[in-house]
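FORM 12-B: Structure-to-Sequence Request
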């Protein structure tokens, strides 16, 4: 029996032991030389926290709000495709884990469950729906309508993937979606899912999407729209001007354009450009509660985690995903106590320094 996992890295090792080469490469891999994949994680080590002392930390809370929704901690579950390939509990198990942890799960367009099934698995809890706009707008519309009908509280439009990144681990392993899995959105678009490659399912995404389409999506949406995949101050500013409710500074976990900067290094310019008009979230490389504190100090309202909860799901199903979220929450809470920040809003810019020459 391996020892019980106590942190995200332990879960990563457990997941790697359990998964076959193809799925593991798909989940763990990045694009090109995986520079950005590594950088996302490594960049956190170039930040130092600056604790303040003699702050009353007898009553610390990790609870916060995102887009007005109360969550137990500033961590949201990122949209991650193909979760039943990790574990039969799939997206429904992930939704229950997020609900138990008191936070939001974001369901991917290319999930292995429908928005309705996930909603039924954890009724009455807040959830977001991640949108890829397909060339076949009818399929996209139907997915969005179902999510709205099931009470999803926000849409996150992902804009960093007009085509799949160059995922070389998938090329080497010859990865394609196993025959026994169904991705309802993909099946709706092309009639089947099994055997489809990553390049093929991204070829369904409309590469002609522009800011005009975003405006239309916002105009048609009864719920707030977030833009996921913003990486520059210029686009952060445009996002505000086009009426989004928030942005997610993201490089898709290093899976799209390789050689882009780590997201934590892009966060400050995006926060500055937004200038308090909308909420700014960030994802990529967050593996510790202390990473979350760095992101808060640099102006993020909250973070999203992709692989950490995926490793939990792959290792131990729903219970593993729940445990990963519990671990992150307790690490954030302890971090806040030791940093001298009784609540997430108390974490300020002065609580972090970027180490020079690191
Ligand atoms: C296996 C995998 C599948 C993903 N699928 C999606 C997806 O369907 N839609 C999306 O917007 N982002 C997707 N992402 C990106 C995540 O939402 C998130 O941006 C990224 O995982 C954050 O980095 P982290 O894994 O280091 O936490 C995926 C990421 C991974 C690892």
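FORM 12-B RESPONSE
SEQUENCE OUT:
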């Amino acid at each position: 029996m391996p020892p019980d996992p106590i942190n995200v890295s332990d879960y990563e090792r457990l997941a790697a032991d359990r998964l076959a080469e193809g799925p593991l490469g798909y989940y763990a891999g990045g694009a090109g030389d995986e520079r950005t994949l590594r950088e996302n994680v490594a960049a956190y080590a170039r930040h130092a926290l600056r604790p303040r002392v003699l702050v009353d930390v007898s009553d610390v809370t990790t609870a916060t709000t995102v887009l007005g929704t109360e969550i137990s901690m500033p961590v949201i579950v990122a949209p991650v495709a193909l979760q039943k390939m990790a574990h039969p509990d799939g997206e429904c198990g992930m939704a229950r884990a997020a609900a138990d942890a008191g936070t939001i799960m974001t369901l991917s367009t290319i999930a292995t469950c429908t928005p309705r099934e996930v909603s039924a698995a954890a009724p009455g809890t807040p959830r977001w729906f991640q949108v890829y706009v397909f060339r076949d707008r009818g399929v996209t519309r139907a997915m969005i309508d179902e999510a709205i009908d099931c009470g999803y509280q926000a849409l996150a439009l992902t804009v960093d993937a007009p085509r799949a990144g160059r995922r070389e681990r998938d090329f080497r392993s010859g990865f394609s979606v196993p025959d026994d899995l169904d991705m309802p959105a993909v099946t709706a678009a092309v009639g089947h899912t099994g055997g489809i490659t990553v390049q093929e399912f991204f070829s369904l995404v409309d590469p002609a999407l522009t800011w005009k389409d975003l405006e239309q999506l916002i105009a048609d949406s009864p719920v707030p729209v977030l833009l996921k995949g913003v990486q520059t101050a210029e686009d952060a500013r445009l996002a505000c001007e086009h009426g989004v409710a928030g942005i997610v500074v993201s490089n898709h976990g290093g899976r799209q354009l390789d050689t882009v900067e780590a997201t934590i290094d892009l966060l400050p310019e995006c926060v500055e450009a937004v200038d308090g008009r909308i909420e700014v979230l960030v994802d990529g490389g967050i593996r510790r509660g202390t990473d979350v504190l760095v992101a808060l100090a640099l102006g993020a309202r909250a973070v999203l985690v992709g692989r950490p909860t995926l490793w939990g799901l792959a290792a131990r199903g729903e219970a593993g995903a729940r445990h990963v979220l519990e671990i992150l929450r307790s690490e954030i809470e302890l971090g806040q106590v030791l940093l001298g920040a009784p609540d997430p809003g108390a974490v300020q810019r002065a609580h972090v320094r970027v180490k020079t020459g690191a």
